[in-house]
Protein 1
Amino acid sequence: MPTPSSRHSHIGSKAPTLPCWLSPDEAHDHCCAGAGIFKFASTFGGLDPDIVLVGIGADLTFEVIAASAYLQALIPMLSVRVVNVTDLMILARESTHPHALDDEVFNTLFTSSRPIHFNYHGYAHELQGLLFGRARLNRMTVSSYEEEGTTTTPLDMVIRNRCSRYHVAEAAVKALAKANPDAGLDWQKFLAKIGKDLARVQKWIWREGTDPPGTWDVPVFPTKAERHKEAEQQLRYEDTLLPKLWRRQKQEAGLLAKDETNGERGIDV
């Protein structure tokens, strides 16, 4: 909450009017906490994620939400948790600031071992300085403002600064490939698809001078049934053993017989 000695920066959005993701009561609780999981944009409400995507700032949180929808369609077996941060000080190392989360709460929100990608509306070094001292920094990556831009479209602006939904998706796939080298998935195929989609959008912007239709619509997330149907089809091509978490999720969706799981349990956060 504001104090007589505190300073507050107000950053205006270049994008069209963005949606309200939370009700007034939810927004109040969310801002008092300083962060929270956007369950509507996460798979399985954010349970047992393979990757954590963090949005900080209105525009870049929208890009994270759009990236989550994009990734869920691209890799149906993937589990994503989307987190929004409103109070940067919660990220600071425990005991370095009154708002800093202790390690237990930090790990509950961001997990203790999964890759984390932050999409931040300021400079990367600001966020990296706050995170310094947290455990396992090697699993954290940051995309942020890079002093790039001109008179252009809102989407092109975030593309130029490498913090668009496509760059968030690319960072997520690279982090997943690094963390799961034996998953048996063709990570390069996913990266190639992201690159083609980005090039197609850039071509449209250069030709038309506007963002493609639907760019700023509320992202549409695949239903659970759609995701599992696509995952089943994808498995026929990948021919790989699934990580325990993915196997459990498929069993719950009725796509994997119980006797095939050999009593395996989900991976703990």
Protein 2
Amino acid sequence: MNYPSVKHPSNYKSPLVLLCILFLYACGRETPVPKPVGYFRIDLPTPKYQHKSPDCPFEFDISEYSRLELIVDTAHPLNELGDFIDKNGHLPKMPSTDQIKEEGLATCETIRLLTEKVEELTLYLLEQRKEIELLREEINKN
């Protein structure tokens, strides 16, 4: 099956927006693609993947990839997280915009980091739920 050449839209500055547009375009959905300036290519370091869907070239089952580590001990308290974001303009462990411009965006590493951030968000939600339940108990006692 021939997939269309995916051109890099120069007007989009955010790498995540670019990845979303690239994904939608490759899956056959119409997306606005302004002024092409080059070609985009996704390289995997080893051929240890299985292509799962003939309709979308970016859906892979990557069999050999380092497992995510438990982040229970490394999650930042919310007040520290807010301070870090205010100071640096990005989440901890995530690359900055300047770093992405200089080094590019490693797809597998980005997926690993995003999965880690989802796990951190889940921990924060569970923590918030416990606090809400404790506050409800206090209100019901009074």
Protein 3
Amino acid sequence: MGSKNGKVWTKPGVLRDDSGHLIMAFSVATQCRSNNQAEAMPALYVIECCNRALDKTNTI
């Protein structure tokens, strides 16, 4: 959820493969200005995690 008063919200999420199997679950502390930003922050977190994994191993 967005926050207009400076509060930090925790956004939970899960990453699943194409069969629906759980790859990872996470919770991201965010401070957002809109509901759209609050929805996008977990997606950005997953993308960054995948990029770090690729940098370390060159595979997922």
Protein 4
Amino acid sequence: MIYNLALTLAQQPEVVERVLRVTRHRGFRVTEMDMHLGDNGTTRLGLVVESDRALELLSHQLSKLIDVTACEVLAPQQTATRYPQHASA
């Protein structure tokens, strides 16, 4: 299954490393990551992860991390619709 998460983080150097470590330890593989620094001391991190495990195993643990202020589960993504194949001319 492919899942999409949106996290709000404090701007700390080690917070992304912690998020990725928890993701790996919970048995999820990161397939896509998008990060944007905010003006108010926060960072928005978008993760697309893949696993056969229940997403709650990951989202609950991420929300407990010290510098994670929000963990939102978004609608599941299908990679085929996200990256359509272009026809060659």
